[in-house]
Amino acid sequence: MTSRALLLELLLHLLTPDSAGAAPVSNSAVRPFEVRNALDELAHEPFASARRVRDRLGAEGRCYDHQARLFRAAYGVTPLQYVNARRMERAKNLLRDTAVPVAHISRMLGFRDPVYFNRLFRKVCGVTPGTYRQVKESC
User: Fold this and answer.
1) In terms of domains, do 51 and 100 share one?
2) Which domain-ending residue is among 45, 63, 80?
3) Of the residues 64, 79, 102, 131, which has the fewest C-beta atoms closer than 10 A?
């Protein structure tokens, strides 16, 4: 699973237009990058101000469904899957490098339900957060 996450991150990096590059041809070509930037900000928001993906993308006055379609077409994952993947990477770092309790880590990352966090972490990594912390292997 780590290789999949790294591949996604590499693809995102390669597909991101740099400021010195040519201007995008159409509005639909630039939207996935703008959506990804908004999702990156959301994935790094502290728990106290964490918002739902739908609320964050709808805050710009654009249709959430349209933005989600463009994002999925460009990156192959939904906005929620992308945010959760980013949060799982942060969770792995916190589990590996700190002694913060798992329930607190889940709240820090914007998960309101620690049980859901545990289930999602297990789905992504194949082990529970507690086991991951004990073994300290990358998944």
Assistant:
1) no
2) 80
3) 131
> The tokens 């959301």 sit on which residue?
42
What are 127's two structure tokens? 């082990």
Is the domain of 66 the same as that of 87? no
Instruction: Note the pTM of the prediction, 2 decimals.
Output: 0.64
Instruction: Give the span between the Cα atoms of 79 and 68, in whole angstroms.
Output: 6
Inside any domain, residue 69 = yes
DSSP state of 59: T
Please tell me the total number of residues recorded for the chain in this structure: 139
> What are 90-120's pLDDT values in tens digits?
999 999 999 999 999 988 887 888 999 999 9
Enumerate residues 6+ apart whose C-beta is below 8 A from 63. none
